[in-house]
Specification:
- This is Putative Phosphatidylinositol alpha-mannosyltransferase.
- Keywords: Glycosyltransferase, Transferase.
- With 382 residues, the protein is of the alpha/beta class.
- The chain folds into two domains: 2-163 and 350-366, Glycogen Phosphorylase B (Rossmann fold); 178-347, Rossmann fold (3-Layer(aba) Sandwich).
- It is 42% helix and 16% strand.
- It has 15 helices and 13 strands.
- The protein has a seven-stranded parallel β-sheet, sandwiched between helices.
- The radius of gyration is 21 Å and the shape is elongated.
């Protein structure tokens, strides 16, 4: 099938990496595919390095008319059956551009967040009238929210996590243990969060939990991996925590597999917005027990007491309690880690995700043209 996938975001996180993962998988399955990406964005550079077909198109708000005309011309020449959009700006550009092409390509929005749809008229128009299908990268509870809370038609909403390369993300010892780099004993315990540094990822509660645990035991170090707009705020919180010597902010890393495999516990205390964070799925696939929150569809995969623990969002005390419980029981960590690996391997591989996505493509491509019912600095949103 001939597919266009657009992404107007200029950030780099789970959403953008998922776009590349899907594109690579679809190309391997024989689909003809073109990525429409923002010039100068990290994802554009990564896509080009991978040899994926890329068209650079400025999708900034002051370039909307030019972007619509350019995308319409590209679709007219290449005739994609599907345009798949991922963020707010490319959704609007795409929804208008497809209506200037006959026959009209179908348009799918991939929604990477679990927050309620905005009630304003433009968002309602986008999601109720302009998009043919909405796929949310979560589980059934996130899909139900879009139907019951936001009023979208059940037949036009699908939900499934991003999917993982389970052969790549498999349990094993790190090639380079992070403890050695940090000058820690081999028996020292490591608790980590790996995430783009955004407010809704809950870093402040991770730091609070670290401070509480550090006051009780001296054989645990906490690591924060990632970069982003909240870096300075996180640094200040670490300095004010009373446990700064036990919390390491490591910044961007290109050896994430080794970082993951060095951890004894993975925590990501999301406070809003997330569906199922990609890094959470990676930790589960690697056999690492996870502590997270009840946000979005996280409880669908972090099954409390089976693959990890979930706590209420914004509750640093509860987060500390569950992390400490895991740190105190190596056998429990092993059992929960093995359960998490089995869950991801059985239900959330990239192949299973692509099977579901292809089923959506086929359904839309075969359907008659019909009127669909109903949508920052980085270019995400909506």
């Amino acid at each position: 099938m001939n597919l266009f996938i657009s992404e107007s975001s200029t950030a780099v996180g789970g959403q953008e990496l998922a776009v590349l993962l899907h594109a690579e998988g679809l190309v391997k399955r024989g689909h003809r595919l073109r990525l429409i990406l923002e010039p100068g964005s990290p994802i554009a550079a990564m896509a080009q390095e991978k040899g994926l077909p890329v068209t650079l198109l400025s999708m900034r708000r002051n370039r909307y008319p030019q972007a619509i005309v350019a995308l319409r011309g590209l679709m007219y020449r290449e005739r994609p059956a599907i345009l798949q959009v991922n963020s707010s700006r490319d959704s609007w550009i795409g929804c208008i551009a497809v209506r200037l092409v006959k026959p009209r390509p179908k348009i799918i929005r991939i929604r990477h967040i679990s927050t309620p749809l905005n009630r304003n008229m433009t968002t309602q128009l986008l999601y109720r009238r302009l998009l043919d299908m909405v796929v949310v990268t979560g589980g059934e509870r996130t899909r139900r929210d879009l139907i019951e809370r936001d009023g979208l038609e059940p037949g036009r909403v699908a939900a499934f996590p991003i999917g993982l390369d389970v052969a790549h993300f498999r349990p094993g010892p790190p090639a380079r243990d992070l403890r050695r780099e940090l000058g820690l004993p081999a028996t020292h315990l490591l608790v980590g969060i790996i995430s783009y540094l955004r407010t809704y990822k809950g870093h402040e509660y991770f730091i609070e939990a670290a401070g509480r645990i550090a006051a009780q035991r001296d054989d645990v170090t906490f690591v924060i991996v990632g970069e982003g707009p909240e870096e300075q705020s996180i640094r200040r919180r670490i300095e004010q925590s009373g446990a700064a010597w036990r919390i390491r902010l490591l910044g961007f890393r290109d050896d994430l597999l080794d970082v993951f495999r060095s951890l004894d516990v993975f925590a990501i205390p999301s406070v809003e917005g997330d569906t199922i964070p990609q890094v959470l799925m990676q930790a589960l696939a690697l056999g690492i027990p996870v502590v997270s929150t009840t946000i979005g569809s996280i409880p669908d995969v972090v099954i409390d007491g089976q693959t990890g623990y979930v706590v209420p969002p914004r509750d640093g005390l509860a987060l500390a309690d569950r992390i400490a419980h895991l740190l105190g029981d190596a056998g429990l960590r092993s059992r929960l880690g093995a359960n998490g690996r089995a869950l991801v391997e059985g239900s959330y591989s990239i192949d299973k995700m692509l099977d579901r996505m292809e089923a959506v493509y086929q359904s839309l491509a075969q359907s008659l043209t019909r009127s669909p019912a109903g949508g920052s600095t980085s270019g995400r949103g909506g």
